[in-house]
Amino acid sequence: MEGDSEDSTSNVSRQQEDLYDIELLTLALDDLELLPTNHPLRPITLSLLADALGKRYRQYGSTQDLEKRIQLCTEALALYPPGDPNRYLSLIAFANALSDRYKRSGSSGDLEEMLQMRRESLELCPPGHPNRALVLSNLANALSTRYDCSGSLSDLEEAVQMYREALELCPGDHSLRGGLLNNLACALSSQYDLSGSLSDLEEMIRMLGESLELCPSGHPNRVASLITFANALSKRYERLGSSSDLDDAIRMYRESLELHPPGHSSRVTSLNNLTNALGNRYDRTGSLSDLEEVLRMCRESLQLCPHGHPSRGIVLNSLANAFSKRYERSGSSSDLDETIRMYRESLGLHSPGHPSRGITLNNLANALGNRYDRSNSLRDLEEMVRLHKESLELCSSGHPARDISLNNFANALTSQYDRSGSLSDLEEVLRMRKECLELCPPGHPRRDRSLANLSKTLNDLYDRTGSQDDAKRSVESARESLALCPLNHPGHAFTSFVLAQSISRSMDQQTEPGEVFQILKGGLEASISPLEQCLQCGLLWIALASEHHDDPLEQAYSGFIAFLRRYLTMGPTAKLQYEALLQRPRNGFLLFPMDAASHAIGCGLTERAVELLDEGRSLLWSEMRRF
What we know:
Layout: H1 2-31, H2 42-60, H3 63-78, H4 87-105, H5 108-123, H6 132-150, H7 153-168, H8 177-195, H9 198-213, H10 222-240, H11 243-258, H12 267-285, H13 288-303, H14 312-330, H15 333-349, H16 357-375, H17 378-393, H18 402-420, H19 423-438, H20 447-465, H21 468-483, H22 492-506, H23 514-524, H24 531-545, H25 550-569, H26 574-583, H27 592-602, H28 606-624
């Protein structure tokens, strides 16, 4: 109770201080009118007031404060004409204000004006100037921001070059070195996204390790270093699938959240980072506690971002992602409708030109795709296709996310083809798959998925035309994809299913099916692949084995029952049960042990049949305990 009392007193005290600061700032703005334009203190007064408004804007998000700050910066810069030794400082302050407005509005005009000011300030700080490292860093930050928006490789390369030059000016324990290591690592991360070079990823992580060592507990930059390091570990997790990287990232995100307690202006960012990482762990483990924590944190974030807050759109996206995951688990149409509603609100806040519009379009389109799969609504299908098309248009040639957008649009057109049977749709999908693969050369982290998707489309084309050349290329693409996805890779089950499907569709009656069964067995046992993809492998294994002799079918049943044990301990989603119910309409996957026992009896394996029935009863009780 004493602790609660102290926290309450502290909060009241902080609120009183904030009100006092606001009153002082209001009085100072009123007193500004008493200073004539030519007063020698007017420039520095304008700068100080603009800085104070900037701090208040970052705390409360008021657009009035932001616009007034920019007005004061404009006047201050006019009082520092070219040649004035303090002009570069006024340029820095003005560019910082424009940066805040760009983050809120996404206006390309603000971004270009900010870049122009950053370049002018660098010209005023030639080699040897004491603040050259700071100005180099500011310009590199602006170039990185424009790269994120336009995908211009020249901007990224120039940013990396400037970060490296600034870093050379900040050896040892220089106050800027930690931040520069962070920023250079972020630029290398973007470079990695383009090239897929593991050396870029490892260099990035090495730099971030040094940065974190420079920021021990209590250091003002420790939070930024923790977040950037955690982001890098998350990338390596996505590439290599190491659970230790993901757990370390979550640990760092938790520490950063502790350093951003309730009331801190950056708490929303830390909450969002942690929810994304927990969401990734939920995808891997199916842990309900992780999903519940994600939902709780996303709701807290949304409460901190009322209407008009610059981060509301991002938080809505994260909460909608969480509802989407819960929909996959619960099958609740209300969860899906809530997901779509939030994505729509987020899209309304990310108007054309906003840097987050593309990902919001993509998320809403994917949610509509889920509803289309459920309802078969033509309206949802048409809107999904339209939104993916707009998202692709925002990812022009050279954009780092173009392959992702191409893949999503191709998936939408595949759904359209499945409905219409239009060969032109299928041919357009094939063209997109090929372009996507060109954007993911050997070494690219998404090459395996591009190859697998190409294989699926070639399979569809083979079903349509009967071309053996399409069948052959489908198998070749899937084999290359599986070679990039070892058993401990998150994509192993998906790629195994695609390859097995490709081989089984194209093989004749004389083809030995043993290879297909081994591929599907590996996919079923892929422990870190999503459960629904493992389930697909198991169902296909049983379906194909049932067309052959007794031993393959008995092995398929045994493998599937072993999978069900793992499946039930992780809490199967309603979506998975629905897919299984399509195969066994009465009681879903719980009938598979009985099918297996029946098969064993038919083969004269009575003892094995009893074992299978016992296993089925055990699974049934496990399922009943969930309710």
